From TrEMBL:
Coiled coil is among the record's keywords: yes
Organism this protein belongs to: Streptomyces guryensis
Span of domain Response regulatory: 6-123
Name of the featured protein: Response regulator
Domain of life, source organism: Bacteria
Coiled coil: 161-188
Signal sequence residues: none
Keyword annotations from UniProtKB, A to Z: Coiled coil, Phosphoprotein
InterPro entries the record matches: Bact_response_regulator (IPR050595), CheY-like_superfamily (IPR011006), Sig_transdc_resp-reg_receiver (IPR001789)
Length: 226
């Protein structure tokens, strides 16, 4: 069963939170409400989120200050933030949003289809990263356990490597399809950069797996001698 991604919605007005939930419900992910910056930071202490939709104009701790706290924390600094604002103070105000670490800055009223599409991209990237971490953890545990599976069955190294390679290939295929989709849709630069980062991590994992293949060490040795 695939675990759903969590999306954090931060706005001090209940009607705005309700509207966001209505727009994003079609994504079939877990939507978490926060009515203030302080409440958002508290939620981020315990849960992992695919993306944060953050209102700029809030009493007390506003969106800019909240984003600054999020980016200072090692646990949360890489979570994409989409700023939402009901006012437009011009380029300087927008620049301040990007300077605070936002991947996008959207003025209200916004197109529900556009917002849903932007959020779905980051949700998909988050899910791919989760799959990558799971495959890496599985590889590490099985290698440390001498090739034992979750039920205690011991597999031959070649069989184990073949299974892990197949699982990694499935993630690679999905990541490649997502990258092509982003290129075709001329997606946001932040989304494209995140996808590229994911592909680099996949490449590193593939190289590590290939290095474990029988004969890989001797082949590299021969290559270095030539």
């Amino acid at each position: 069963m695939v675990q759903k991604a969590k999306i954090l919605l931060v706005d001090d007005r209940p009607e705005n939170l309700l509207a966001l939930e209505a727009i994003l419900s079609a994504l079939d992910q877990t939507l978490v409400r926060a009515s203030s910056g302080e409440e958002a930071l508290k939620a981020l202490l315990t849960d992992d989120f695919a993306v944060i939709l953050l209102d700029v104009q809030m009493p007390g701790m506003d969106g800019f200050e909240t984003a600054a706290h999020i980016k200072r924390r090692e646990r949360t600094r890489d979570i994409p933030i989409i700023f939402l604002t009901a006012i437009n103070h011009g380029p300087h105000h927008t620049f301040r949003g990007y300077a605070a670490g936002a991947v996008d800055y959207i003025s209200k009223p916004f197109d529900p289809w556009v917002l849903r599409a932007k959020v779905s991209v980051f949700v998909e990237l988050y899910m791919k990263n989760c799959q990558l971490r799971e495959q890496a953890a599985l590889l590490r545990l099985q290698l440390e356990g001498g090739g034992k599976t979750a039920v205690g069955e011991t597999k031959e190294p070649a069989s184990l490597l073949a299974e892990l390679s197949a699982r990694l290939a499935a993630v690679e295929e999905q990541a490649e399809a997502l990258s092509k989709q982003l290129d075709d849709e001329s997606a946001d630069a932040a989304a494209v950069a995140t996808a590229a980062h994911l592909e680099r991590k996949l490449t590193g994992l593939r190289r590590a797996l290939d290095a474990l293949e029988p004969g890989a060490g001797s082949a590299s040795s021969v290559s270095s001698q030539n």
